[in-house]
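Lecture notes, continued. The same structure-token format from the folding unit now serves as the input rather than the output. Read the line below as a description of shape only.
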């Protein structure tokens, strides 16, 4: 086989690029890190814009949809954007106000009761008989009152910080002083978020024009086949993430509301806080509700062990009702991903990026699953069509002519 000079040139260039990449891999990754740090506000803005666009689109559909007045058309986008941002901020503030104060109070209660609890354990002969002598000596040698005093002081500082949420105006000077003393990384993160919010406002206000320009560029510089494929993939990704966010948020609100109502009926402590906590953790697939259950049971345990057991039994019943009745009928749709792949997405995403990885990987796996499923079905239908249109074998043709 004769080698052309173009093939040799491509092989030499590929080998040179591979050598340079291996030799300068540290410098390349360092440069990529610098680029990613520079792009962080842009990425944060896109994420914020995508999330805020969900309630914004909802408000746009219901903001005088049949009106033909120019004033309504001009005010639709800014008014709905403002409502979208206010909705997200209201949800975050509401969750913080419900969870943080009562959570701090629960920790204080647990710390105050810790010394007496340890003494009761050490006085119980049945429990002491199960523990090794070394563990008992270690527990007896600890000054639990001193530990409780130290941790209480730390919790007191946290309590003071959480109090600023309910009285921002009066404590604004203290908040500013606290922020200025925070580590540079936190300040950098806050600046990234603020710039991202500004960018998201610009992007949402001009999203139709920006998306139209991107589509025009794609049509101009890409082949029609590639243009269709790219937009089909992007459409599938958008459908998966949009559906996932809507379904999970609806599920979280339903589960948190039912948990609060049930705890109020049963007379369990911290109903609003634990209900908000259960709803918030329910956003995490598979393990989220159980994380909230463990934290909630621990908090109720500081008040009454019997009520903690009742709470766990109540959550088990609530999970059963939610999984088999509420989720499929009221929510009405899911991400379309089998349970085994949801578990795989949670495991991989959690192992790579923690909880954010779980939230990102589940709809990503859903989109990949849909794309592969559609492509497999298309290829199988094409292959079956070719088999039907294929000419019959020679033996069959001869047999038909003989008959």
């Amino acid at each position: 086989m004769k080698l052309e000079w173009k093939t040799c040139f491509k092989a030499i260039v590929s080998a040179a690029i591979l050598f340079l990449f291996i030799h300068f891999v540290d410098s390349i990754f360092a440069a990529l890190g610098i680029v990613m740090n520079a792009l962080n506000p842009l990425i944060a803005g896109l994420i914020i814009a995508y999330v805020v666009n969900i309630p914004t689109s909802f408000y746009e559909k219901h903001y005088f949809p049949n009106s033909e007045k120019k004033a309504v058309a001009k005010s639709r986008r800014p008014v709905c954007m403002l409502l979208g941002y206010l909705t997200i901020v209201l949800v975050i503030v509401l969750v913080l106000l419900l969870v943080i104060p009562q959570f701090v109070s629960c920790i204080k209660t647990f710390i105050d009761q810790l010394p007496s609890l340890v003494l009761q354990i050490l006085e119980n002969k049945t429990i002491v008989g199960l523990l090794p002598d070394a563990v008992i000596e270690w527990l007896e040698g600890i000054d639990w009152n001193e530990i409780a005093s130290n941790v209480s002081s730390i919790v007191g500082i946290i309590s003071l910080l959480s109090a600023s949420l309910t009285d921002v105006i009066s404590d604004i000077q203290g908040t500013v002083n606290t922020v200025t003393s925070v580590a540079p990384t936190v300040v950098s993160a806050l600046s990234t978020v603020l710039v991202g919010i500004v960018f998201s406002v610009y992007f949402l206000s001009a999203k139709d024009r920006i998306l139209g320009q991107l589509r025009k560029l794609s049509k101009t510089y890409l082949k029609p086949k590639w243009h269709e494929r790219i937009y089909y993939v992007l459409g599938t990704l958008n459908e998966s993430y949009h559906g996932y966010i809507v379904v999970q948020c609806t599920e979280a609100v339903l589960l948190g509301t039912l948990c609060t109502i049930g705890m109020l009926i049963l007379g369990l402590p911290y109903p609003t806080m634990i209900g908000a906590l259960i709803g918030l953790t329910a956003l995490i697939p598979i393990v989220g509700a159980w994380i909230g259950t463990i934290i909630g049971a621990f908090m109720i345990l500081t008040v009454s062990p019997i009520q903690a057991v009742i709470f766990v039994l109540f959550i088990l019943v609530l999970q059963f009702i939610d999984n088999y009745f509420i989720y499929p009928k009221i929510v009405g749709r899911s991400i379309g991903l089998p349970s085994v792949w949801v578990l795989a997405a949670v495991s991989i995403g959690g192992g790579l990026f923690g909880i954010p990885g779980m939230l990102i990987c589940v709809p990503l796996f859903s989109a990949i699953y849909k794309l592969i499923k559609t492509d497999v079905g298309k290829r199988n239908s094409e292959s079956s069509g070719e088999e039907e249109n294929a000419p019959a074998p020679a033996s069959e043709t001869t047999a038909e002519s003989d008959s």
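Point for the exam: The first helix runs from residue 5 to 23.
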